[in-house]
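Convert to structure. Protein one:
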Amino acid sequence: MCNLYRMTKNANEVARWFEAVETAAGANFGAEVYPGYPGLVVAEGEVRAMTWGFPLVLTGAKGQKLKPRPVNNARADKLSGSFWRHAFEHRRCLIPLTAWAEAEGPKGRMTRTWLSLPGAELFAVAGLWRPTAEWGAAYAMVMTDSAGCHAAEVHERMPVVLAPEDQARWLAGSPEEAFALIGPWPGPLAIDRTSEPWAKGSAVQQSLL
């Protein structure tokens, strides 16, 4: 699953790439995006800044409200469930990125492995979004089984990478048409295994439903 990705283009570049209207001027986001942090998405013809992860409201042992947890990954086989269904049916988006990372190695010594499309400056993965009372607009990545794809060398799940010709159908097609696009990426992937510690910088717990 994806709990860290890299996005090195600014909002204007993303808007030109996806032929969208740029409405995120001045948005503050880092080149490395973590759950609970802001990132750029393409939704309803606009490039917007949103928080990565739907808030999951937690309750303590005494019934007190705890800080919400960002649920940043949506499993494809759970999209019909109550947590994701409305967003999948009505609020799909594109998440632009230049690479995503997975953790590899023994516990406590995991390192970052980056996956990307060879030669691509920017590409899009499938996303969902919705307004929230806690963080404003929030988004999540749709994850699929990576079996049969190069990504399976690294992790059993991967983001749903969308070819340019499929992006409009993901955004505006029926739920059935959108669901048909979900699957492992059929083309090559660039895999960059590094010595970077997985938890360096902002070590944020992932969450997947």
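Protein two, convert as well:
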Amino acid sequence: MSASIARVGAVIHKELAEFRRNRLIATTAAVLPVVFLIGPTASILDIKAGALSATLDTRVEYSLFLPLLVPVFVPSIMSAYSVVGEREQGTLEPVLTTPIRRAELLIGKAAAIFLPSAALGYVIFGVFVAITQLAASPPVAAAVRHAPQLPAALVFIPLLAAWAIWVGLAISARVSDTRVAQQLSILGSLPPVALAALMQFKVISPTFGLVAALAGGLLAVDCAACLAVARLFDRERLITGTRPGRLNEKET
């Protein structure tokens, strides 16, 4: 077990180092959270103390939704690069020559994306709530603090990040171009976001029971996606981007 943990830790360390060296990923991880923090925060702070209830509710819904995109877009871009980017850089094959197991490689890659993405999502929400409580007028601060969408958003941050990671890894293991992988990964991450948007804008009332049911369903989907992606993580597929046996067919 200790050797397995050591190999997973080595994969995580390698992945994080690779992400730091990639300018696009590093820039995206730095800029996107700031963009999705400044807009909602400015919108909330601009509300006057005597604003109508409808206007206040709309601003709060908008402001709580945009930061929820951080744990979706950031892991989408990172996971989309994780396999095809390494294949293009020529750093994937040396890893696969080591005695790393498929599960260890998958867990290491996923964890290296999940941990900073989920942490970043919570930090953005924490900073947003802190600023609104300190700088907004008391009625506006109370509206943010007691918004039913706030606890729902905190529950869905890791679940949305996990979904984006599995989608991105699956696409990255199958395509041969990093940009295409990132575009498809973002598109594939949007369905759960649409569901979250319905709750954030009260099209669906975010009651405790509904949030718990949807969170449980998304967790089950994430687990099933993990098993599905694991099937794509065989050595020949990761190196060539083709199905096992296809090379033999071409040779014959």
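Confidence is low (pLDDT under 50) at residues 242-252. Residues 5 and 82 are 20 Å apart (CA to CA).
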